[in-house]
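Fold it.
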Amino acid sequence: MLNLPKNNKVAFIGGIFFALSLGVGVIIFGIPSIAGSLTPPGSPANTMYTLTDLYNLASGTTTTVGTGGLPATPSATSSTMYTLTQVYDALEAEVSEVASTTLLRGVTAFGQTGTVYPNGALKSNQATCYDVSGTGISCSGTGQDGESQKGLATSYTDNGNGTILDNTTGLTWQKGTTTTYTWTNALAYCNNNTPSLPGSGWRLPNAFELFSLVDFTVSTNAKINLTYFPSTPASSFWSATTYPYTGYQSNAMYVYFGGSSVYAVDKTSSYYVRCVRG
């Protein structure tokens, strides 16, 4: 022990030291230096297998760690592992089973195109409320459609080539229509991609798709957005949907745009056509 003045001090002599005060003196403990080089002793070793390595190991082939790239899919399974093609085919089969109920319209996955409207049905666009006699009244507190305004807002884009895009549903519609057809000929007119329609994939819309064009804000003429579908007659348009009730399959569903209603009629009748794509 050294008799030193009563102070708490730290001395550095070749390393790190701590001073411990004991009243009349200080006991000094020495600790070896802990500083050192941060440089690793050598390059990192390659201990990871590539996908080719794993495939070769699974098929019993000798491999060297860290060599090779993604293997080509073999023509047949030679081990307990599925090929990439088999995995894809299995997923495609699963997606096809749910595409009509869960895959959104306009979305394509594994070769399947969705048919579901996002977030539910479209708005009716009706903003006025009425009493039982048909007189316009304030919508406040009525619970009517004009008050609640539920559903998705409709939105259209004129593509400038005789077609109209429905931005909400993702469907592309024939803009103009002037000719009437029987139901069979209406199917053929759309499916054959008539020269007046650009691109491919045109078809006769189903009843739900066709009814989505009805605009309840229009009080005269055809109940449709006449800005985007000008000169639309207040008449009936074919859908591709056959009437479902037993014994009435000779009838098909149509939408009457003069009164925004859906009916069924014999397929030999002549009605207007508005083709759709998507």
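DSSP finds five helices and 15 strands in the chain.
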